[in-house]
Amino acid sequence: MEQQIIQEEKKPKIYEEIVKYGLILGVVFFVLGLVSLYLMQSADSFIVMTMVYPVIFQLLIPLIVVIFICKYLRKQIGGYWTFKQALKSIFLVFFIGWLFSYGLNLVYTKLIDNTITEKMQDHMKENFVTFMKKQNVDDEKIDKEVAKLDEQFAKQTQLSAPTVFKNVTIAISIIFVIALIFAAIFKRERPLTFDSFPA
């Protein structure tokens, strides 16, 4: 009973921490994405541009940050997390982080530097064509693949209501699945004691 009261008192603080670290995660995602974009513009290798940089800046570094946040939040609640508590907390942190990062990215690419995405896409196409030619792919097939890239880029830059709704829906689904995985990893049930058994 006493432990439950302590946990109830911690709830407001925990939600403050969830929002705070969600915003921090959003800034981290945004900065890493921005660094990745600029590095991709200067990359001479298609493999480095499409695999190495994304793995480092969109997977490894964010993973380290997320692990730190999960451990910190679990510590804040007393060192123990039921699966439900972990899932809820981690999902909220991830969703707030993604939403904030998405907003910052829109502001930057639409109001501050509206050419960065186009430059990256042009550079990616150039490296792609160079890579395909090195693989002795004929020009006709290269043109078809470049056309597919242009189509994908055009879809990514669309900001219509259905597109935004689709992106948000997909993001929520992915975030929930990832949160499930992290909740399963970081949950820590309170050990059973004699007091836990009914008299």
UniProtKB/TrEMBL annotation:
Tell me the keywords, alphabetical order.
Membrane, Transmembrane, Transmembrane helix
Say if the entry is tagged with keyword tRNA-binding: no
Q: Where are the transmembrane segments?
A: 21-40, 46-69, 90-108, 168-186
Question: What InterPro entries does its record include?
Answer: DUF4199 (IPR025250)
- Pfam families (alphabetical): DUF4199 (PF13858)
Give the domain of life.
Bacteria
Q: What is this protein called?
A: DUF4199 domain-containing protein
Per the UniProt record, the lineage of the source organism begins with: Bacteria, Pseudomonadati, Bacteroidota, Sphingobacteriia, Sphingobacteriales
